[in-house]
Amino acid sequence: MQIFVIIALMVLGFSVSVDAFNKKERQSTITFPLDPITFQSAPGSQIATSYCLICHSAEYVYMQPPHPRERWEEIVLKMKQVFGCPIPESDIPALSTYLVSQNKIQPRVELKKVKAEPALEAVQESPSSSGNASSGKRVFGTYCVNCHGQLGKGDGPIGQSLVPPAANLTLLGKKSDNEILDAIRKGRPGTAMPSWKNDLSTQDILDVLAYIRTLAL
Ligand code: HEC
Ligand code: HEC
Predict the structure, then answer these.
(1) Ligand in nearest proximity to the CA of 6
(2) Measured in angstroms, how far is the CA atom of residue 66 from the centroid of ligand 1?
(3) Residue 176: which region, alpha, beta or left (left: phi > 0; alpha: psi -120 to 50)?
(4) Per-residue DSSP letters for 7-44?
(5) Rg for the chain (alpha carbons), in Å?
(6) Which InterPro entries does the entry link to (predicted)?
(7) Of 2, 129, 150, 168, which residue has the fewest beta carbons closer than 10 angstroms?
(8) Is there a contact between 91 and 51 (Cβ–Cβ < 8 Å)?
(9) Could you tell me if 77 and 92 are in contact, meaning their C-beta atoms sit under 8 angstroms apart?
(10) pLDDT (tens digit, 9 = 90+) per residue, 142-154?
């Protein structure tokens, strides 16, 4: 049930970037929120980025009321013990200090001028060959590995404890590039599979697709 709420929040996110993404216009630059809300840079923010974005958006964390340090420690411990967040015990004090430092911060969506991404339409013929598998491996190692496992077998640290479990990506041989892209961009509502369209660039998504293709058995 709660996972629905989280996913709904992630999906609600920022449809602006999706619209930009869907437009076929050939512009050389477009302005849109690249990454809706990120953990604001401060000591400890890396820990939050590594371990909290696995299941939540940063926005979800910033929406919480201000908590004293003990309460944040309690919450993080609950994430670890109850939900299987893979954060090491030794990182919890530094993360709690960071979370306290973010109590009163209301992060703004940063509007960035970015180079126009290749429109998906332009690469529709063969999206996986438009991606770079070795860059995709890095994307995978940062964002996907905790659930899908190093070799994509669905056996990451939390992959098998999810209901349904993380998919075995070595078995996607029969799925088309577009089916896989769809799963990555939109996620799978009602499961732990997040939507990545707001958090990864088109190129990152194409790269990770190219990497997934190399995992097929
Ligand atoms: C493995 C998935 C997972 C990870 C990783 C995770 N959470 Fe959660 N989190 C959940 C779920 C599921 C809930 C909903 C719990 C509920 O409503 O009882 C939740 C709820 C919360 C809440 C709401 C308050 C509460 O006690 O329920 C906060 C705040 C929170 N998480 C912060 C974090 C932070 C900070 C991190 C990074 C250390 C994190 N979460 C990592 C799954 C996760
Ligand atoms: C929090 C855990 C989690 C993370 C992180 C995650 N996934 Fe998933 N993923 C899942 C789950 C669970 C499923 C199975 C959903 C279902 O049963 O419909 C899934 C399904 C998929 C599928 C669909 C497979 C099929 O059978 O059609 C693809 C593709 C996929 N994930 C790719 C990725 C990529 C790429 C990333 C990183 C950018 C990623 N996932 C990150 C949990 C996760």
Answers:
(1) 1
(2) 15
(3) beta
(4) HHHHHHTTHHHHHHHH-----SEEEEESSS--PPSSTT
(5) 18
(6) Cyt_c-like_dom, Cyt_c-like_dom_sf, Cytochrome_c_Oxidase_Subunit
(7) 2
(8) yes
(9) yes
(10) 999 999 999 999 9
SS3 4: helix
Number of independent structural domains in the chain: 2
Tens of pLDDT, residue by residue over 26-74, are: 444 444 444 457 888 889 999 998 899 888 888 889 889 999 999 999 9
Residue 126 sits in the same domain as residue 157: yes
Q: Pull the structure tokens for residue 70.
A: 């003990």
Is residue 16 predicted with pLDDT exceeding 70? no
Q: Tell me, in angstroms, the distance from the centre of ligand 1 to residue 118's CA.
A: 35
* CA pair distance 136, 153, nearest whole angstrom: 16
Contact 212, 152 (CB under 8 A): yes
Helix (H), strand (E) at residue 168: none
Same domain, 132 and 211: yes
Say if residue 113 is in the same domain as residue 97. no
The pTM score is 0.53
Quick one: which ligand is closest to 88's CA?
1
Q: Does the CB atom of residue 100 touch ligand 1 within 6 A?
A: no
Distance (Å) from CA 134 to ligand 2 centroid: 19
Task: Please say whether the beta carbons of 185 and 197 come within 8 A.
Answer: yes
Task: Please give the residue range of the domain that contains residue 194.
Answer: 2-36+109-215
